[in-house]
UniProtKB/TrEMBL annotation:
InterPro entries the record matches: 2Fe-2S_ferredoxin-like_sf, 2Fe-2S_ferredoxin-type, 2Fe2S_fd_BS, Beta-grasp_dom_sf
CDD domains per UniProt: fer2
Matches recorded under PROSITE patterns: 2FE2S_FER_1, 2FE2S_FER_2
Protein name as catalogued: (2Fe-2S)-binding protein
GO molecular function, one term: 2 iron, 2 sulfur cluster binding
Annotated organism of origin: Cereibacter sphaeroides (Rhodobacter sphaeroides)
Domain (2Fe-2S ferredoxin-type): residue spans on this chain: 2-119
Source taxon at top rank: Bacteria
Length: 122
């Protein structure tokens, strides 16, 4: 079980929801299920409307990830991933600060997901 706390200036306050461990829903799917208004368009990693900033309750316990080439390329195009973060993702399997909500699978860890409410605005 993981707590996912969504926060945005367009929400009345932060909202924490529980994601079931082993579930393979994306953060965007969890948000939709709970009526959390993360902007989206393609749901396929192409438009970047769903850009989010993710912080980890226990940064040292961040789970390994597989950052797809598509997500990496899109984040690079937006200037939302550093060379160090790309290296950390490729070598250490560590997630970067910004993600695409439609590509990020909720895992068994507590995270805070921030978004501006503007498409691509994180
Ligand atoms: Fe288009 Fe996520 S909705 S990249």
């Amino acid at each position: 079980m993981a707590n996912i706390t969504f926060t945005s200036p367009i929400m009345h306050g932060p909202k924490t929801v529980y994601a079931v461990a082993g579930d393979t829903k994306t953060i965007l799917a969890v948000a939709e299920e709970h009526r959390i208004p993360i902007p989206f368009d393609c749901k396929d990693g192409n438009c970047a409307s769903c850009l989010i900033e993710v912080t980890y309750e226990e940064p040292s316990l961040r789970k390994g990830i597989t950052l797809t080439e598509k997500e990496k390329a899109k984040l690079r195009e937006l200037g939302k991933i550093t060379a160090q973060e790309i290296q950390d993702a490729e070598v250490l399997d560590l997630p970067p600060r910004y993600r695409l909500a439609c590509q990020f699978i909720a895992r068994d860890e507590n995270v805070t997901v921030a978004f501006s409410g503007e498409p691509g605005g994180a």
